[in-house]
Amino acid sequence: MAKQPMLRFVSVSKEMPDKRPPNLRTEDFGEIYREYATEKAAEQAGRCSQCGVPYCQSHCPLHNNIPDWLRLTAEGRLQEAYELSQATNTFPEICGRICPQDRLCEGNCVIEQSGHGTVTIGAVEKYITDTAWEEGWVQAITPAAERTESVAIIGSGPGGLAAADVLRRAGVQVTVYDRYDRAGGLMTYGIPGFKLEKPVVMRRIEQLEKAGVEFVLNCNVGEDISFDAIRGKHDAVLIATGVYKARDLNAPNAAAPGVLPALDFLTASNRKSFGDEVPEFDDGTLDAKGKRVVVIGGGDTAMDCVRTAVRQGATSVKCLYRRDRENMPGSRRETANAEEEGVEFVWLTAPLGFLTDDAGDLSGVRVQKMRLGKPDASGRRAPEVIEGADYTEDADMAIMALGFEPEDLPKLFEQPELTVTRWGTIKAKFNTHETEMPGVWAVGDIVRGASLVVWAIRDGREAADSILTYLSAPAQVAAE
Ligand SMILES: Cc1cc2nc3c(=O)[nH]c(=O)nc-3n(C[C@H](O)[C@H](O)[C@H](O)COP(=O)(O)OP(=O)(O)OC[C@H]3O[C@@H](n4cnc5c(N)ncnc54)[C@H](O)[C@@H]3O)c2cc1C
Ligand code: SF4
């Protein structure tokens, strides 16, 4: 990890000057919002007790220096707060928006734990960096000196982009290959725009382009270009391809029209927000408008699907999950948001099969009721079927959000020596992220399994540091 700058300050001013314009006009609203946001950020930052045992920092995967940038924000020293926050985080405004803070920094805030409500760390982090963009403090990288070595990065999600940023800063030539037409990985096509606005992702990619990172898009490595060819062209390769194989449900009629994989549904919605033509959305297949929607699954992807369906104008949205609220894997905050928006959660239920009408269209989900039995091998109480309690949920669209698995990369890349775990994820060293193939690193979901943006960023930054060490001493490494 990059070394964190240390800052020490003693006094915190909580007084905010009242700069509100005296007469309100429509054009003032943006300014007033800004003033309000500034006050809120300073107020929240000023609530930090500077407790001296920053659990928030140790529970942030990037070990962000949260107490110090909160203190700077409370003092109105936003540019310094920004400099400090971006020293350890490649995309602070993205993490501020989409980290599950209740499980990370904010969940471990001492003030939260003493029952007084957390300092809203993520919101302050977002505010600081959004301000930095508005003020022009976020500048494209200009390396002090160019290096001749080049690195290929396969996959332009947060893992790949965080590595590209660190490598480019060091002057390395970086080429990012991605099979999609836009970079950003799941930040672009998975996570919905109401959680992460797409221009926020696109401006980061534009800045990397300005900094000299080359993006080769619409390039499916393993099909359009071989892994060997990439390896031959570059001095090192980083694999950051994520996990995309949807877990299937083995149930009668699971291939019926109207039964959809979560990512198809979310990607179509994100593409529409870019203004793309999406025939399967335009013909209604991937559009929830006017439909009774049932989402199956209890993770964050399921929450994104239910909330997207609500926004598309579904007539009803239900979420079936086989355990109860307490045992749901998704974020509590996301679940509460979905409930506020009118989503109905049907706990302790699992799909048994899908029903179709005379035209062959989906008409319902046959559901079996469950109860929680004894803990299984993972320690969680295993759901058991309640015999004879099956019933039908009417549905015009059923979205399967049962999780993701890695593709068979050794096969796709024709690299049997690229070793994988028993879950199919790539084996890589914990800190350096080197795989068992010389000169090849791997980061993010393809190593961890489905995880979080902030972990992919951490991996990408660490792998880039390790690649830089390798590039600086290739002879020794090759001799090992
Ligand atoms: C619906 C959804 C919502 C989520 N919400 C959140 C959230 O709110 N907060 C959070 O922290 N995390 C969230 N996540 C998880 C987060 O998005 C991932 O953990 C993170 O994006 C992983 O980053 P990555 O760089 O490993 O891979 P990805 O972001 O998946 O990027 C991988 C890239 O590799 C490319 N690729 C794959 N194979 C090839 C190939 N053969 N050739 C070329 N390119 C290839 C893909 O096109 C893709 O662009 C969510 C995930 C999903 C699915
Ligand atoms: S990166 Fe995520 S966990 Fe870390 S401080 Fe920001 S919001 Fe919290």
Give your account of this protein's structure.
The structure is a single chain. This protein is α/β, with parallel strands linked by helices and 480 residues long. The protein has 19 helices and 16 strands. The strands form 4 sheets. A 5-stranded parallel sheet has the order 3-2-1-4-16, with helices on both faces. It has a 5-stranded parallel sheet with strand order 6-14-7-8-9. Strands 10, 11, 12 and 13 form a 4-stranded antiparallel sheet that branches. It is globular, with a radius of gyration of 24 Å. It starts with 28 loop residues before the first helix and ends with a helix. The N terminus and C terminus are likely disordered. Bound molecules: flavin-adenine dinucleotide (FAD) and iron/sulfur cluster. Iron/sulfur cluster binds next to helix 5 and helix 7.
